[in-house]
Specification:
The protein has 266 residues and is of the alpha/beta class. Helices cover 42% and strands 17% of the residues.
């Protein structure tokens, strides 16, 4: 199937879609919307890989989200086994989250250790990373630590360390540092109602941007606030990126689709 849009980060394996998942996936196929179903722990990674294996327009990422550091210690073996599937195209989502918990030194230490283990697995398997990074309020602390970790990993492994920093909420300096390290940044439908990211969207090189939804979260403005989101909304994200950049929608659509194909070797 020739895709028109690509959602680089969604969670359609979650229970939010139990009632109508088949109908949603059929609509995605009809509208030629592909996507990566992203795991947050071993259970959701297994579900992501299974869904991707059943649907031509879906792919999967397997990994342990930093907010699950208290629930599951990262063991590479089961994730390595899942990643044997050709439909598993990335490791993640993994990274650092200093926003949702007290971000104690011990929590940061554990998150960094788990993240480094997943970087090692991505290098071993030659797959890109899907990175979650969320700083504490009013700071860029998680991005600063992320950039330091990636610089060390690049020094050790070079071009084998690459991927996407999803739901990017950093500034222009952080964006440029991450792109210099060989990463893309992706934007969600939050950009349809918040103007905080316009400067970054305009400043980012077009070949370093991806579109995503992080569904079921953050629906666009044309849906009720707090309602369930889905990957079809990636079309709204692409349209808003084109509007903010003041560029032709079709040029942006094609570029973002090609960026995803290139990064994830689709």
């Amino acid at each position: 199937m020739e895709l028109k849009y690509f959602d680089a980060h969604c969670h359609v394996q979650f229970d939010h879609y139990e009632r109508d998942r088949d109908e949603l996936l059929a609509r995605m196929q009809a509208e030629r919307v592909g996507g990566i179903v992203v795991g947050c722990n071993l259970e959701s990674s297994k579900k992501a890989a299974a869904l991707a294996g059943e649907h031509e327009h879906l792919y999967a990422a397997v990994g342990l989200h930093p907010n699950h550091e208290a629930d599951e210690w990262f063991e590479a073996a089961p994730y390595r086994e899942l990643a044997k599937s050709p439909k598993v195209v990335a490791i993640g989502e993994c990274g650092l989250d200093y926003y949702r918990n007290d971000a104690s030194d011990e929590i940061k230490r554990k998150q960094k250790a788990i993240f480094n283990d997943q970087i090692a697995l991505a290098v071993e398997l030659d797959k890109p990373l899907i990175i979650h990074a969320r700083p504490s309020k009013g700071t860029m602390d998680a991005y600063q630590d992320l950039i330091g970790i990636l610089k060390n990993a690049k020094a050790a492994h070079g071009g084998a360390v690459h991927g996407d920093v999803h739901f990017f909420v950093g500034g222009v300096p952080e964006m440029h540092e991450l792109i210099a390290l060989g990463f893309t940044v992706s934007f969600t439908a939050v950009i349809t109602f918040a103007r905080d990211y316009d400067e970054v969207i305009r400043a980012a090189p077009l070949d370093a941007i991806l579109s995503e939804t992080d569904a079921p979260y953050v629906p666009p403005t044309n849906r009720p606030r707090g309602s369930r989101n889905d990957p079809l909304a990636v079309q709204d994200v692409v349209a808003k990126i084109a509007e903010v950049r003041g560029e032709d929608l079709e040029i942006i659509r094609v570029a973002l689709l090609e960026n995803a194909k290139r990064l994830f070797a689709l």
